[in-house]
Design goal:
It is a single chain. By secondary structure, the chain is of the alpha/beta class. The protein contains ten helices and eleven strands. It folds into two domains: 85 residues, 3-Layer(aba) Sandwich (Rossmann fold), CATH 3.40.50.10860; 123 residues, NAD(P)-binding Rossmann-like Domain (Rossmann fold), CATH 3.40.50.720. The strands form three sheets. It has a six-stranded parallel β-sheet with strand order 1-11-8-7-5-6. A three-stranded parallel β-sheet has the order 3-2-4, sandwiched between helices. Helix 7 links the parallel strand 5 and strand 6. Bound molecules: NADP nicotinamide-adenine-dinucleotide phosphate. NADP nicotinamide-adenine-dinucleotide phosphate (NAP) binds next to helix 10. The site of NADP nicotinamide-adenine-dinucleotide phosphate has 25 residues, from helix 10.
Length: 285
Amino acid sequence: MAGQVINGKEIVATIREEIKAEVLELTAVGCEPGLVVIIVGDDPASHVYVNGKEKACAQVGIYSEVHRLPAETTQDELVSLIHVFNRDARIHGILVQSPLPAHINEDEVVDHIAPDKDVDCFHPINVGNLMIGKKTGMKPCTPAGVIQVLKRIGTEISGKHAVVVGRSNIVGKPMAMLLLQENATVSIVHSRTPDMAEITRQADILVVAVGKANLIGPEHVKPGAIVIDVGMNRTDGKLRGDVDFEAVKEISGAITPVPGCVGPMTITMLLQNTVNAARLSQNTQ
Ligand code: NAP
């Protein structure tokens, strides 16, 4: 029997309504949450993502600014701008859109974002806090979105075997940490794992973040497993995930569609981090 196709749009709409209410509450006490997004260069996909973030902010009432800088912007110029926003009381979240042009060192740039405004949760201090389980209000957006999807469909994560495919700093590693915090037993597989299917077939919860269309087929999935597809691959002008959706849908317990779930959830968690940062800024004034 085919499993449930997770209704990402409905979950996103519900959470955004909750965020909207929080924004109203904060604005009423003089703390309108504010996000700045900085984009350098002309990467078309990045401009689409940034426009999506700007629209999402407007939808929930978050004040937002987008700074579109030319590709020739130097690292020093970018860092100076970040420091302007570190000091700007109207701005609670700073996001530098990735990828940056090759002459800019992305890791060094992230180091300059004030950790309490690092809404992407990429600053080493926030990564360290995630590792030791310290609650700061900042959570890595894509993995936090996956946890929300699991919870909103009523998944009991504690005690389950969760397998994460991929070990990137943006998705795979923080995903594993958040699942561990939820008391899952966590395995990570990656490109050097000899028999990946042997491990993924043990998963009650399978999260896939690789960047290869249709990498995961029914032979990788335990019947009844919950499958979360983070992948975004543009092939033949269509957006596809890492999971062979049509085939895996037939055996999974529940599965996310691509597009329409993890992507918009990621932006939703960016909004949530901005609101959390605004709330926390009140305690430090
Ligand atoms: P990444 O940095 O390229 O990492 C990919 C990971 O997949 C690496 O750990 C790599 O292993 C592993 N891998 C590669 N080939 C594999 C194979 N054949 N079997 C098992 N593992 C394999 O990518 P990423 O930034 O994590 O992104 C992954 C995907 O998620 C991409 O499609 C990206 O567009 C998408 N994404 C979506 C969102 C969203 O909002 N929906 C957000 C972020 C990313 P090694 O470490 O051994 O090389």
